[in-house]
Amino acid sequence: MRTMIFAGALACCSPSAFALDSNNTCNVELNGNMQLENHVLAATLDNNTRLSIDQDKTLYIDGIALTLNPEQQHWVDNYYNGINQAVPQAAAIATDAVALASTALNEVFTELLGSDNTALADLSDKLRKLDQQIQYHFYADNGDIRLHSESFKNGGFFGEQWEAQFEEAIEGLVTDSIGHLMLAIGTQLIFSWWRHR
Q1: 158-164 — which CB contacts under 8 Å span 24+ positions?
Q2: How far is residue 6's CA from residue 45's CA, in Å, rounded to a whole number?
Q3: Per residue in 147-194, pLDDT tens?
Q4: What is the model's pTM?
C-alpha cells in the first residue's frame, strides 16, 4: 500500500504527467517536518508517516525500505540531491547576508558615531549572535550540514522577538547618528561663524 501511495506521488512527477511546470520540474509539497542530519533526509508528515532517504538514496516509509522502479528511483535521487544542495546554499546566503550587513553597518556608523558607540556595539553583538544561530541551525558540530524545519516555524531563530530587538537596535543607532550629526553640524556652524566674525 505504501509503495502504491509513493509510486502515485512519483508518477505525478513523471514526464508524462501534468504536474510538470515549464521548467520540467516536479512540484511535490510534503506537509510536515523535514530534517536533514547525518546525510539522512527525513520528513514526518502531518499524518505521522515518516519518510526517510539515506545517503545511498534508499527510500524508507516508517522504517520499511521501498523497492522502486528506475524512474521512481530517479525522482528520489533528484529530490535528495536537490535538498542536499539547497541547504548549504541557503546557509551560505544567510551567513553572507549577516556578514554584509555587519560590514556595512560598521563602516558607515563607525565613521559617524565612533568605534566606542554602545548602540553600534549592541547591534554588532546582535548580528554576531544571529550568525552563531545560523551556524547552529545549519551545521552540526562536525561541520556536516543539517536542517530541522521546526527551527524555522513559529518564530524560530528569525522570529518576531528577534526582529523587534533588531529594529529597536537600528532605531537607537539611527537616533544616535542623527544626534551626532546635528551636534557636528552645529559645532561646524559655530566655528565657521566665529572665524568669519
Answers
A1: 162/126, 162/130
A2: 13
A3: 777 766 655 556 676 677 677 777 777 777 777 778 778 887 888 877
A4: 0.62
